[in-house]
Amino acid sequence: SRARPAQLLLLLLVPLLGAPRGLRVRVRLPDGQVTEESLQADSDNDSISLELRKPDGTLVSFTADFKKDVKIFRALILGELEKGQSQFQALCFVTRLHHNEIIPSEAMAKLRQKNPRAVRQAEEVRGLEQLHMDIAVNFSQGGLLSPHLHNVCAEAVDATYTRQEDVQFWLEQGVDSSVFEALPKASERAELPRCGQVVDRGKPCVCRYGLSLAWYPCMLKYCHSRDRPAPYKCGIRSCQKSYSFDFYVPQRQLCLWDEDP
Ligand SMILES: *[C@@H]1O[C@H](CO)[C@@H](O)[C@H](O)[C@H]1NC(C)=O
Ligand SMILES: *[C@@H]1O[C@H](CO)[C@@H](O)[C@H](O)[C@H]1NC(C)=O
After folding, report:
1. Ligand 1 within 6 A of 168 CB?
2. Nearest to 217 by CA among 58, 15, 23, 34
3. pLDDT > 90 in the chain, percent
4. SS3 label, residue 217
5. How far is the CA of 45 from the centre of ligand 2 (A)?
């Protein structure tokens, strides 16, 4: 069979040499609204970053660091000034990157779109992933885990979280243990209420935050041609995925969005 260029949203072309390549796409969010998303690949650093703004103003970003097997989610949540909240609150969630989660950075760097006005909807909706973030990342040591952490999580110095199971993997890869700090022990945490159930704004609780990557290239597509001996990369498959993070906060007021237990 032949490649069907008319049906491919994006084509893999010969890369231009030089600076990191960027792509802006219009995407449909899970709630039906449309927003703009930017995707950038840096093949020198073997990394991909994605950024989108939710209709409520929250800026969500995702960084995949293939060199260090690290992915970083960041949310910049706008405060409600009339309720006395600060201008924004930043959260960073750092977990292990598996290399089949998203296309390689060198392929991402070659993506171009034929129709920038098109509103894109992911071909595949991947299931919600719930993550229990039980370890804090020491920001000043974060560069030992990934060089991207200092830039991406600069606003979340006291709110950068990861998980014990990912820490175990990184320690085996030789990452220094000084990066990681235990949060209150599991036994104590088990006693902690969800923030939605806590009235006293000074009390610790377990907060939940959800975000979605509305559209990202999750797989390469291969085509066959009579003129070529082997299948060749001819496009991408797009995915959407949602994540829900549970994490400890020392004070209820750091989790004001969590109203519904
Ligand atoms: C983070 O690590 C540095 C260097 O090891 C240490 O001095 C500092 O106390 C740590 N921060 C926290 C909050 O533990
Ligand atoms: C990306 O790579 C360049 C060199 O190619 C380097 O100067 C820069 O610090 C790297 N950035 C990150 C975040 O790794």
Report:
1. no
2. 23
3. 64
4. strand
5. 6
φ and ψ at residue 123, rounded to 5 degrees: -75, -30
Q: How far is the CA of 222 from the centre of ligand 1 (A)?
A: 48
Q: pTM to 2 decimals?
A: 0.88
Does the C-beta of 130 come closer than 6 Å to ligand 1? no
Question: Residue 140 C-alpha to ligand 1 middle, in angstroms?
Answer: 7
Spans of the chain, pLDDT less than 70:
1-21, 81, 83-85, 185-190, 260-261
Task: Kindly tell me the burial class for residue 46, based on how many C-beta atoms sit within 10 Å of its own C-beta (0-12, 13-18, 19 or more).
Answer: middle
| Short-list 47, 7, 29, 24, CA closest to 111 | 24
Classify each residue of 204-214 as buried b or exposed e, where b means 16 or more C-beta atoms within 10 Å of its C-beta.
Answer: bbbbbbebbbb
Give the chain's mean pLDDT.
87
Ligand number, closest to the Cα atom of 176: 1
